[in-house]
Amino acid sequence: MSQIKLLPDEVASQVAAGEVVERPASVVKELVENSIDAGASRIEVAIAQGGMSVIRVVDNGIGMDRDDALLSLERHATSKIRSGLDLARICTLGFRGEALPSIASVCRFQMATRTHQAVEGTEILVNGGKIDSVQASGEAPGTLIEARSLFYNLPARRKFLRSDNTETSHVQHQLLLQAIGHPSIGFVFVRDRDLVFQAPPTKSLADRIRDLRGAEFLEQLLEVQFEPREGLRLSGFIGRAGVSRSTKAEQVIFVNGRLVDNITMQHGLREGYHTALMKGQYPITFLFIEIDPETVDVNVHPAKREVRFHEPDKIRDAVAQAVQRTLESDRGRWSQVFQKPAKPVPDRVLPQPVRVPQAEQSVLRKERIEFQALSTESRTPVPPINSLPVHSASIDPVPVDPIPESPWVPPADTSEVSPEHQFKIIGILGKLYILMENEQGLVLVDQHAAHERILFEQLRSQMESEGVPTQRLLIPLTVQVTPKDYDWITINAEALEKMGFILEPFGDSTLKIDGIPQFFRSDDPALAVRHLVDELRSMTTTTSRLRMGEDVIAKTVCRHAIKANDQLRFPEIERLIKDLLACELPYCCPHGRPTMIQMGYSELEKKFGRKV
Ligand code: ADP
Ligand code: MG
What we know:
Helix content: 25-40%
Bound molecules: adenosine-5'-diphosphate, magnesium ion
CATH class of the domain at 9-203: Alpha Beta
Shape: globular
CATH topology of the domain at 9-203: Heat Shock Protein 90
CATH superfamily of the domain at 9-203: Histidine kinase-like ATPase, C-terminal domain
Strand content: 15-25%
């Protein structure tokens, strides 16, 4: 007797549901995606008990007639593709015809739907996958779908559901993302009869983000506009340098309107942010990629969360470039904010103004012109880092010798502040933070982080031009490495040389170290080289070769930058600030930590209770 039997339809649907319907949030995702595909301009979602007792999605989309409504509950019934060929150019969010039958098989399901032309609608009740009743109904055009008692017939699944609050927060997160992805659709979210949020339809993504997250949040973001070639467009918003999160929750990417999780693009983001992101942190991104649908496969994941690009490297590069340009374009704004003159405040006792010597002034004037040139440029795409002019001020490093006996004393000169010198240095706090005054209030600069950024950019520009100066070892060292490392080093010898490492194959997995970068001070160069190779190798899977040198530098500048307790003289502080403002990314150190913090008057006033 045959051992193999076809599963009854309901069971087959439950099996399929196991992949598609994980929890209330996945039901909401599928239903909302259907509403979006149906051209709705308003979608209302209501849940009770975290969606475990009720999930209701109502839209004003095209609706279905009676036959379609019945068909939509069959497995593999879809209006979105017709043939296998269509699978290669999907423009809708759904395409498998699986969601409705799957959902209907694991709950008490109700659908009420009506097309805009019809005089009456259709209402269908389904119980655990079996149709209970079909009747005419009289609701507004559009579709209502209600899923009650989710997983009532799958106790094993139900056990995995979390608390009401946890499930609600998953649903809410899912909806917020869909709302960000589709600003022209109005969204309403109700939980246990309380309105949680309401987002009116809008033309602009900025408005949608402001409506959902507030103006302050939007302030932290930069707009992306990048079209590297026909058939590929990147837009949206990303967090400014130094703005990050400890989870991926706000690293949001849409590909042709579909929310996706894609490793290629995550690498692109990381590479684009690079030194502007702290280790272990994730950027905030609301990135939209529009790409020819024929060059991306969306049919790879049960919940359609993943996509595969035909040319992943190109997409990754485009993402990295878009991020890099956007971050650089922010520089003009920063330098303006930080260099705006302090407001004259007649009632307050002002610190001694700073006199800028004549020779310094000319340098400053030159730099301001360069700043202005850059900030106008920033509206059009900014050239990549290596084609930007190197600022003369950032070439000679800040003298770092500490002067223990003489902490900084403002020069006793009362002449006016030079108009070019737009920041006023007030003093130093805790031998680490430089206090400055600008138009908006107080600016704090971390002298160590600032110096790291300056050194980093100096070395990087050297590496990109003539190469980092090498310090030849008097007696060359040899180091034994694994065969894999050996191959890797041989392949990358040229790049390593630009970074100042002169390594020669010595046969039998042995390397000869002839020279190391001048900035690279180490008691045991052989061990240091070995560690470095380990680290670089693990990084190059996620980082391009171009960025490899930057990693070496970022890792080492920290040791050479001025430290928290190094006391600087006034001209040194001034120089440090000036060099910092001339950097490409002045606002964060090469590890992504901020270099400067602005504490505005309004914040101070709030803290002192002068303003609520
Ligand atoms: P898919 O979205 O992959 O086509 P679904 O099972 O989610 O599969 O839906 C099946 C079909 O039901 C859809 O192709 C669509 O024609 C119809 N449908 C589902 N939801 C709606 C809705 N909210 N409004 C109009 N039609 C819908
Ligand atoms: Mg669908």
